[in-house]
User: Fold this.
Amino acid sequence: MKEIQLTQGKVALVDDQDYEYLNRWKWCAHKNRKTFYADRSVVENGKRTTVAMHQVLARLMEFKHTADHINRNGLDNRRDNLRDATSKQNQENCSVREDNTSGHIGVCWHKLGSKWEARIQNHGNRIYLGLFEKLEDAVRARNKAEKKYFTH
Assistant:
């Protein structure tokens, strides 16, 4: 693993095999909502566009769709952290919402049951994972479901 220096004091993580190719260009740190990504400006046919580092790697890896960061770190562009995902799958692998009270994705307090509820969404379907006395148990159930539904 190597680091590529970005603007704003950030670095992108890449595999050794991709370092030389990607380090030929100057990359910038760009924040989209709460997540930073590495990107660069490109002029094509007189028009300026932005190219994301993870999408460059997706083309190299011959993804059919888009690259999704498995660990939700937009600056971690190692190949084992990128998966070929549809737009819908990418959205399902999102960060913790601002109104989240548990601090964990897919885990919330169930008022009527007075327990922690775990759930996950896959292909547009909400999957109920259960009610749990302890927050840690609900988080464990959610993590197990993430491995089942969101890994290669």
Remarks:
- The chain has a mean pLDDT of 89.
- Residues 135-150 form the longest helix (16 residues).
- The longest strand covers residues 35-44.
- The domain at 2-90 is CATH 3.90.75 (Homing Intron 3 (I-Ppo) Encoded Endonuclease; Chain A).
